[in-house]
Amino acid sequence: MTIIPEYHKQQGGPQTTEQLFAVFDSDGNGQIDRSEWQIRKMAIFYMRDRNNDTVLSRDEVPGLNATRFAEADLNHDGVLSGYEFNQASFSQFDRADANSDGVVTREEFRAYLETLSTPS
Known about the structure:
By secondary structure, the chain is mainly alpha-helical. The protein is about 45% helix and about 10% strand. It is built from six helices and four strands; from the N terminus they run αβαβαβααβα. The strands form two sheets. The chain has a two-stranded antiparallel sheet. Strands 2-3 form a two-stranded antiparallel sheet. The radius of gyration is 13 Å and the shape is globular. The N terminus is likely disordered.
């Protein structure tokens, strides 16, 4: 089982790619559709918000490429609000749905996670 990038790890949170995929795949059919993605990506935001201040600091997403973090920080305050996280290009469904078929497979999900830590 593949270990997921460090920024997804948190005490009590998903530790592997498969566990994180399962968070998104709420109906358990082995694919993530757009609706599941939209609903579940904010669950990931709250899992990462370790100090419960409703923003993500740089240290709460250490595996996310610094450029991607800065691009998402629309008001340049050094943290990502829920709105900024939700609107960020890296959190959009189409980024993960590589073949544009309307669902994200496990393979697409693994590839998508790898892109988050590499330079844009």
